[in-house]
TrEMBL record, chain A:
<dbReference type="InterPro" id="IPR016162">
    <property type="entry name" value="Ald_DH_N"/>
</dbReference>
<keyword id="KW-0492">Microsome</keyword>
<dbReference type="InterPro" id="IPR015590">
    <property type="entry name" value="Aldehyde_DH_dom"/>
</dbReference>
<keyword id="KW-0276">Fatty acid metabolism</keyword>
<dbReference type="InterPro" id="IPR012394">
    <property type="entry name" value="Aldehyde_DH_NAD(P)"/>
</dbReference>
<dbReference type="InterPro" id="IPR016163">
    <property type="entry name" value="Ald_DH_C"/>
</dbReference>
<dbReference type="GO" id="GO:0006081">
    <property type="term" value="P:aldehyde metabolic process"/>
</dbReference>
<protein>
    <recommendedName>
        <fullName>Aldehyde dehydrogenase</fullName>
    </recommendedName>
</protein>
<feature type="active site">
    <location>
        <position position="207"/>
    </location>
</feature>
From TrEMBL, chain B:
<protein>
    <recommendedName>
        <fullName>Aldehyde dehydrogenase</fullName>
    </recommendedName>
</protein>
<feature type="active site">
    <location>
        <position position="211"/>
    </location>
</feature>
<dbReference type="InterPro" id="IPR016163">
    <property type="entry name" value="Ald_DH_C"/>
</dbReference>
<feature type="domain" description="Aldehyde dehydrogenase">
    <location>
        <begin position="20"/>
        <end position="427"/>
    </location>
</feature>
<dbReference type="GO" id="GO:0006081">
    <property type="term" value="P:aldehyde metabolic process"/>
</dbReference>
<dbReference type="GO" id="GO:0005737">
    <property type="term" value="C:cytoplasm"/>
</dbReference>
<keyword id="KW-0520">NAD</keyword>
<dbReference type="GO" id="GO:0004028">
    <property type="term" value="F:3-chloroallyl aldehyde dehydrogenase activity"/>
</dbReference>
<dbReference type="Pfam" id="PF00171">
    <property type="entry name" value="Aldedh"/>
</dbReference>
Length: 507, 472
């Protein structure tokens, strides 16, 4: 591991990942890779998650191509120095924020969307000019192996190496020094990643998870709401970090919700969901068993059929679920949807706030005020109102968690910013030493007044204001000394009026 | 043994859950109260800082009180605008929806302040934390004892005691404090303690901002106005007796430049502090005996060209310039944090860049040159938290510039609006408009094979025209 990272660092230090042209060329190569190897990518994802080509394309490839197109178009503007507002003393200077690469960054992917969750961070990291060590999840072994095979064929292999392996390899990797680590996965490992990063004072972006609540108000179009929830919950067999994890609703609409979801499931997957090519499987036996244990002692209103050999779990709904049950303790990450009864929105808000902050929060209601209230009185990584998942797909929205669901964010420009150092730059010249004199010792009251005036945004209007006025008056007199006295009087009057009204802020 | 801070934390958390700190009026009232603290306690602040480290009142007024007041006013002027939901550009699929970024407070945050600028570096983060709507635990440094006492005794009576608390704690108590869960931790101090803070934060997945330090290089090229350079470098180095995280730590220049720079520095020092700096009211002292001994030990590196006098009773170290310094000597192995300026000679700009890049990335990098090309080259070939050409410290006074480090000099940034954003969770929100369920049906199964090419053609067209791609 040390060798791989060392080579990446040497490659970064050579400076070749920095020029915009190089970054754009690598991104173009990446785009070519996705287009030319599309079939292999779809096959690998299909092998890992029993995902049909259409799903794999729309879940993983489309998003990557979109992100590439956006990044390549906007990169020149994102990477340009960003001028900032100056104060009186720096008026003659250049003041700007310079986006710069961080150095060597580490991207650790997850198994549930094994391609896009590695590619999207990679795109941002390349765009920002870094060297990137890519570590796809070993759990999605086909996709991981494919990435290891094809990435070096299209990208600079020293700058963007792929590292494969399980826990021991990842542990060794985390012992190396990086300049940023972006990890997608669960909170337990997130803590391990952050602790390892702390040893090197490496900043981290952690895209974790949690139980994303979904509140359904009695005042809403239940058929539409349930269709959207069905789509978001059972896509990828429930293995989505922003899937609606559980439903909160009034007991009176519980059976209607079940009926609607049942009807939608028929629409989506037909009579025999097991035979439907559009329905995925649980990634492996371990997770299969984990989800099975969540069903113990629960009232199954729909589904519940399983087949261990193929890791199949039918779309399942649990009703009258108790808040203390196992299924309400951990992130489900499977096609099991518990419905918990709440009497009203206050109870729902209270319920949500008693738990860890989730990655996503969903509210369905015709009442806009209610939706706004739920948002204002809760906290979550992100929110979608009257739909699920969709805030993920708008690249201008930063995607990330809060509290146990993560820290930092990415997507679109936010990826670029995450993987950049925003370096403050102030370029002065060696002239105008006169104005500097006010800050040098030996000190005096008058110097202090002037120093405050020049250096800071606000200043004491009293004495300094008068001095300023006097100065202005002198300047005005000198400048218009050849003009009529009327003009002179007018100028002084204006100056007096300005002083009376108070000085404008220098903000 | 039970956690001595459990009661405090649960009280603050209950106050946080009550939602009291969120309305703009509340935040404004608390910030205005903070302003009154600065006004009414100004004399006490001057006295406490004088006792702690002989801080000249000029320095305190300028670098502590005025800066805080400026940040306070800037925040009060703009808070309403900062708090507003930020609308984002939408793609065609979300045109009718409402898409914005909401600035949510984190909850209960911890701010740990250092001893060198005990007002500025404690209150400027506090301003941002309050502005962002959080509850705050404030931990001033125990090393600046008098300021710690002033903050602990006087500040709470200005602020809402249920939502803002001051904790006095030494090293061990701070470790106990850190066992509790905070929703954000803001730390200013040394890299070694920064590691400890981040490791403690990892246990609770608490995000952090670490304002650390390092050795800030100061490259002086051969083409420059030596007298002005000397003044600006001396001012930056000897302000607060060198105990400034962004002070120029060491100078790199050619031998020829060194020969012009040393007399210029001597002249500047005399201009500033007179022939006997120990008698000048404008020169500070080292904060404690431990720190005094540490800095004094560095004087044996190289050769003393200016100054070098010390007085243990007063913890006085004269403004000192060292020459003939080798890079492996003690003064070059740690952040000096004292009124000692080593000069190292390099034979070329290239050598200076190599020297700088071989070391940990500093909080700030300084370049002095009348050539814009030289400045540009140094900027492009190095990395640092911030960069300032032809002056020292001044980039810190512009609130529109984010202030923070990189690598061992820190992570995150603040000042002005950046402080507000540091203490805010930027929450994405997409509120879908009614209807258009027919459009949505394109994304639902079952997937008729004929739909996919249609989808792809639609997406490919869209990709060329607009930049954002979306799943329908």
């Amino acid at each position: 591991m040390a060798e791989v990272v060392g080579r990446a660092r040497a490659a970064f230090n050579s400076g070749r990942s920095r020029p915009l042209e190089f970054r754009l060329q690598q991104l173009r190569n990446l785009e070519r890779m996705v287009q030319e190897k599309e079939r292999e990518i779809l096959a690998a994802i299909g092998a890992d998650l029993h995902k049909c080509g259409h799903n794999a394309y729309s879940h993983e490839i489309m998003g990557v191509l979109g992100e590439l197109a956006l990044t390549m178009e906007k990169l020149p503007s994102w990477a340009a120095p960003r001028p900032v507002k100056k104060n009186l003393l720096t008026l003659r200077d250049e003041a700007y924020i310079n986006p710069e690469p961080l150095g060597v960054v580490l991207v650790i992917g997850a198994w549930n969307y094994p391609f896009v969750l590695v590619m999207q961070p990679l795109i941002g990291a390349i765009a920002a000019g870094n060297a990137v060590v890519v570590k796809p999840s070993e759990v999605s072994e086909h996709t991981s192996q494919l990435i290891a095979d094809i990435l070096p064929q299209y990208l600079d292999p020293e700058l963007y190496p792929v590292v494969t392996g399980g826990v021991p390899e990842t542990t060794e990797l985390l012992a190396q020094r990086f300049d940023h680590i972006l990890y997608t996965g669960n909170s337990t490992v997130g803590k391990i990643v952050m602790a390892a990063a702390a040893k090197h004072l490496t900043p981290v972006t952690l895209e974790l998870g949690g139980k994303s609540p979904c509140y359904i108000d009695t005042d809403c179009d239940l058929a539409v709401a349930c269709r959207r929830i069905t789509w978001g919950k059972y896509m990828n067999c429930g293995q989505t970090c922003i899937a609606p994890d559980y439903i909160l609703c009034h007991p009176s609409i519980q059976s209607q919700v079940v009926e609607n979801i049942k009807a939608t499931l028929q629409e989506f997957y037909g009579e025999d969901v097991k035979k439907c090519p559009d329905y995925e499987r649980i990634i492996n036996k371990r997770h299969f068993k984990r989800i099975m244990s969540l069903l113990e002692g629960q009232k199954i209103a729909l589904g519940g059929e399983t087949d261990e050999a193929s890791c199949f779990i039918a779309p399942t709904i649990l009703t009258d679920v108790s808040a203390e049950s196992k299924v309400m303790e951990e992130e489900i990450f499977g096609p099991v949807l518990p419905i918990v009864s709440v009497k009203n929105v206050d109870e729902a808000i209270e319920f949500i706030n008693r738990r860890e902050k989730p990655l996503a929060l969903y509210v369905f209601s015709n009442n806009k005020k209610l939706i706004k209230r739920v948002i204002s009185e809760t906290s979550s990584g992100g929110v979608t109102g009257n739909d699920v998942i969709m805030h993920f797909f708008l690249a201008t929205l930063p995607f990330g968690g809060v509290g146990n669901s993560g820290m930092g964010s990415y997507h679109g420009k936010h990826s670029f910013d995450t993987f950049s150092h925003h370096r403050s730059c102030l370029i002065k010249d060696l002239k105008m030493e006169g104005t500097n004199m006010v800050r040098y010792p030996p000190s005096s009251q008058k110097k202090l007044g002037w120093a405050k005036f020049f250096l800071l945004k606000r200043f004491n209007k009293g004495r300094v204001g008068l001095i300023m006025l006097a100065l202005l008056g002198v300047v005005a007199a000198v400048v218009i000394k050849n003009h009529q006295s009327v003009l002179k009087r007018k100028a002084l009057l204006v100056a007096l009026a300005v002083q009376r009204r108070g000085w404008p802020s220098l903000c | 043994m039970s956690d001595p801070y459990a009661g405090l934390l649960s009280r603050l958390r209950a106050a946080w859950l009550s939602g009291r700190t969120r309305p703009l009026e509340y935040r404004t009232a608390q910030l205005e109260a903070l302003g009154r603290f600065l006004e009414e306690k100004q004399q006490d602040i001057l006295e406490a800082t004088a006792l702690d480290m002989g801080k000249p009142s000029f320095e305190v007024e300028l670098s502590e009180i005025s800066i805080c007041r400026s940040e306070l006013n800037h925040t009060l002027n703009n808070l309403g605008a900062w708090m507003k939901d930020e609308n984002v550009d939408k793609n065609w699929a979300t045109q009718l929806d409402s898409a914005f970024i909401r600035k949510d407070p984190y909850g209960v945050v911890l701010i740990i302040g250092p001893w060198n600028y005990p007002i500025n570096l404690l209150l400027v983060p506090l301003i941002g934390a309050i502005a962002a709507g959080n509850c705050v635990v404030l931990k001033p440094s125990e090393i600046s004892r008098n300021m710690e006492r002033l903050v602990a005794e006087a500040l709470p009576s200005y602020l809402d005691k249920d939502c803002f608390a001051v904790v006095t704690a030494g090293v061990e108590e701070t470790a106990r404090l850190l066992e509790n869960k905070f929703d954000y931790i803001f730390f200013t101090g040394s890299p070694s303690v920064g590691r400890i803070i981040m490791t403690a934060a990892a246990k609770h997945l608490t995000p952090v901002t670490l304002e650390l330090g390092g050795k800030n290089p100061c490259y002086v090229s051969d083409t420059c106005n030596v007298q002005n350079v000397a003044r600006r470098v001396a001012w930056g180095r000897f302000f607060n007796a060198g105990q400034t995280c962004i002070a120029p730590d060491y100078v790199l220049c050619s031998l020829e430049m060194q020969e012009r720079l040393v007399p210029a520095l001597r002249e500047a020092i005399t201009e500033f502090y007179g022939p006997e700096p120990q008698n000048s009211p404008d020169f500070a002292r080292i904060v404690g005996d431990k720190q005094f001994k540490r800095v004094r030990a560095l004087l044996s590196s190289g050769r003393v060209a200016i100054g070098g006098e010390t007085d243990e009773k007063e913890r006085y170290i004269a403004p000192t310039v060292l020459v003939d310094v080798q890079e492996d000597e003690p003064v070059m192995r740690e952040e000096i944090f004292g009124p000692v300026l080593p000069i190292l000679t390099v034979s070329s700009e290239e050598e200076a860049i190599t020297f700088i890049n071989a070391r940990e990335r500093p909080l700030t990098l300084y370049v002095f040159s009348s050539s814009k090309k030289v400045v540009r080259r140094l900027l492009e070939r190095t990395s640092s938290g911030g960069f300032c050409a032809n002056d020292t410290i001044m980039h810190m006074t512009l609130t529109s510039l984010p202030f923070g480090g990189i690598g061992h000099s820190g992570m995150g940034c603040y000042h002005g609006r950046f402080t507000f954003e540091t203490f805010s969770h930027l929450r994405s929100a997409l509120l879908r408009a009614d209807g258009r369920e027919a459009l949505n049906s394109l994304r639902y199964p079952p997937y008729a094979p004929r739909r996919l090419p249609l989808l792809r053609i639609a997406m490919e067209n869209r990709r060329r025209r607009t930049a954002a791609c979306t799943l329908l």
